[in-house]
Design goal:
By secondary structure, this protein is mainly beta. It has one domain: Lipocalin (Beta Barrel). Helices cover 12% and strands 50% of the residues. A hairpin with a 2-residue loop joins β4 and β5.
C-alpha cells in the first residue's frame, strides 16, 4: 500500500491545479499591493520614480530621527582670553601697553533659526607703563548684542551656516589723557573714551573636516555718538568695523561638543575733525582708533 501513496498525492495535486486553471497564485506582498505614489525627480522634474503611499510615514519618521541625532545646538557659549593692543593715527595719548583681556560670547536661537547674540570683551591695564597717568585700575570694554537669523546649509553638518545680525555696539574706557613727564604739550592729545553705534553683521561657519573648521564674522558699524576728554573738536558720528576669524578643533567631552580655537580680532572707528583748527594742528582730516588681539578660545554648544 505504501507504493500507492505517491500516486494518490500526485492525482490530488493535478485535480487541484485543474480546478484553479492549472496554476497556483502566491499570496500578494503587502508592499506590492499598496498604491504607489509618484515622486518627481529633483534633477529632471519627471514623474519617473514611485514610492508606496503607506511607507511615507516611515520615511518621515526616519528623517525626524536623523534630525534628532543632528540637533542644531541652539545655544553656544564661548570664552576667550588674550592680549589687546590699542593704536591711533595720532600721538599716543594714553600710554598703555598690551592689555590682558577676557571675553564671553553667547548665542541663543530661541525660535528655530531666530535668536539673540551677545559678546563682551574686557581688558585691564595690569602692567602700567612708566610716566603714564593710567594705573592698574584703568580698563576698557567692547560690547555687542542684538537679534540674529541663522541659515543652515546642511542639516547633517550644523557647523555649516550663515548668520545675519543687527547689533548694538558700545565701547567704554576710563583712560586718562596725558603724561607724567613735565613740560609736555598735551593740547593735541585725543582719545575716544566712549562709542555708541549700530552695526550690521555677517557670520559664516565652514567645517573643513569632522573636527576642524573655521568661523569668521564681519561687522559694519555706524557710530551715532563718540566722546573724548580732548579739547580738539571732532564730529560725534562716524563709521567703524569689526572683524574676527577663528580656526577651531572640535572634540567630545562628557558627551558634549567642545571647541578649542585661536582667533584674530580687530575693531576700528573713524571720526572726522569738524574744524580746520584740528586739521591744521594734527595734519589729518579724521581720527582713527584701532584695537586688535589674538585670543585663545574655548566654546561649547548644547
Amino acid at each position: 500500500m505504501k507504493f500507492l501513496a505517491p500516486l494518490f498525492f500526485a492525482g490530488a495535486l493535478a485535480a487541484s491545479e485543474k480546478s484553479t486553471g492549472g496554476t497556483s497564485t502566491p499570496p500578494a506582498s503587502p508592499i506590492a499591493s499598496e498604491a504607489p505614489t509618484q515622486i518627481s525627480n529633483p534633477k529632471t522634474g519627471s514623474q519617473d520614480e514611485t514610492f508606496p503611499t503607506a511607507r511615507l510615514p516611515e520615511l518621515y519618521a526616519l528623517i525626524d530621527e536623523i534630525k534628532n541625532q543632528n540637533p542644531p545646538h541652539n545655544y553656544r557659549i564661548r570664552l576667550q582670553t588674550g592680549l589687546i593692543q590699542i593704536q591711533t593715527n595720532t600721538t599716543d595719548a594714553i600710554l598703555v601697553s598690551d592689555l590682558p583681556a577676557i571675553g564671553l560670547g553667547v548665542v541663543a536661537n530661541f525660535w528655530d533659526n531666530f535668536g539673540l547674540s551677545a559678546k563682551i570683551i574686557y581688558a585691564q591695564n595690569l602692567f602700567p607703563t612708566p610716566y603714564s597717568l593710567n594705573d592698574g585700575g584703568a580698563n576698557t570694554y567692547w560690547f555687542d548684542a542684538g537679534p540674529r537669523y541663522t541659515l543652515y546649509f546642511d542639516s547633517t553638518h550644523v557647523d555649516d551656516y550663515l548668520a545675519v545680525q543687527i547689533l548694538y555696539h558700545r565701547n567704554d574706557s576710563n583712560f586718562k589723557l596725558g603724561t607724567q613727564v613735565a613740560n609736555v604739550d598735551t593740547s593735541n592729545y585725543i582719545y575716544m573714551t566712549h562709542y555708541d553705534g549700530i552695526s550690521g553683521s555677517i557670520e559664516r561657519s565652514i567645517p573643513i573636516t569632522r573636527k576642524l573648521g573655521v568661523l569668521a564674522s564681519f561687522d559694519l558699524l555706524q557710530i551715532i555718538n563718540a566722546t573724548s576728554p580732548s579739547t580738539l573738536p571732532f564730529k560725534q558720528t562716524g563709521y567703524g568695523f569689526q572683524i574676527e576669524g577663528e580656526i577651531y578643533y572640535q572634540m567630545m567631552i562628557f558627551s558634549s561638543p567642545f571647541r578649542v580655537g585661536v582667533s584674530y580680532w580687530q575693531q576700528g572707528n573713524e571720526n572726522e575733525f569738524d574744524e580746520s583748527t584740528s586739521k591744521g594742528i594734527l595734519g589729518r582730516n579724521s581720527y582713527f582708533q584701532l584695537a586688535r588681539a589674538i585670543t585663545i578660545n574655548l566654546s561649547t554648544r548644547f
